[in-house]
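Re: the request from the purification team.
They wanted to know what the chain is likely to look like in 3D before they choose a buffer screen. I agreed to run a prediction and write the result into the notebook, where they can find it.
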Amino acid sequence: MPPPPSSHITTTILPPPGPSALSLPHTLLTTLTDPNTNTNPSKNTTPFISALRIRIPVFVTEQQCPLDAEIDADDARSWHWVAFDGDRPVATLRLVPVATTTIKGEEKGVVVMEKEHVALGGTEEEDGERRVTEPYHGATKIWDGREPYIKVGRMATLKGYRGQGVAKRLIEESLAWAKTHAAELSSQGMEEGEERPLWKGLVLSHAQKSVQGWWGKMGFEVDVGLGVWWEEGIEHVGMWRRVEAVS
């Protein structure tokens, strides 16, 4: 029986789960590799498990990414969207808030991103593409290297629900929410004395290259300046979209 159209799917937003997302037992995670055996929501230890019931079957079982790499520090501070068919989670994505920034005394007003967001080397040209060992996050023709951005990622849909518009619905619902929550996205996880500029609507996706056409249909534009890189054995590209944030 085919899945219901996306209009019959319900969605929910999960607030940042905090450090608990990083301490889930490995034995629990291994039980989530098969989406057909873990659909009872009463077994959820946290709402975050709903997202993992989709991510682990898609990224770990289907795409053969390492289980130990599936949960990262961004999960703890991100907002997560989950689509449900009845009680069954079938699609998910996360919005990673603005990266931690600092304002240097002699460079007041200059945003300095954390280590994972600075420019990285290891570039080479191949078939007209800029190959990099990690995504380059210096200034490009699309991004000035300073404007704060949020990231949309961990987009996953169970096999039987693809092509139904569920993923598109999650993208649009999450970005519609983001438009009216710029302050929250800018301040999430801020420490005392820290300063961050207000997010103005720039959204980044580290998209799998094989589906960059789909992301293009969602309004994202490939930034060739960020390069093409391998992540967990899968080629990725950086893509941007701008929405109108309401301050």
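For the purification team: The radius of gyration is 18 Å.
Please add any questions underneath this entry.
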